[in-house]
């Protein structure tokens, strides 16, 4: 656990906010034109997928905000001593 705050946490939060704003605007602008004529059940599935897909880059971003690395640190092997 770190003792002092780092610049990565506010930068990550701002970056996530900007990404979500752009993503939401793009979805709201282009999705209705592309799938507006589809049946309601198909539109529901597409919007559910689009509503959850932004979570994919979240884990690496949170790891970077905490560690400064884009991948999780390796756990020490308790059997090796």
Give an overview of the whole structure:
It comes from Erythrobacter insulae. This is DUF2842 domain-containing protein. Keywords: Membrane, Transmembrane, Transmembrane helix. The protein is mostly helical. It has one domain (8-67). 64% of the residues lie in helices and 0% in strands. It is built from 3 helices and no strands. The protein has helices at 8-35, 40-53, 58-67. Helix 1 packs antiparallel against helix 3. It is elongated and about 60 Å long. The two termini are 23 Å apart.
- Residue runs with pLDDT of under 50 for 5 or more positions: none
| Beta-strand content bin | under 5%
Spatial shape = elongated
Q: Structural class of the secondary structure composition?
A: mainly alpha
Number of strands: 0
Q: Please tell me how large the radius of gyration is.
A: 19 Å
Organism: Erythrobacter insulae
Pfam families: DUF2842 (PF11003)
Keywords: Membrane, Transmembrane, Transmembrane helix
InterPro entries: DUF2842
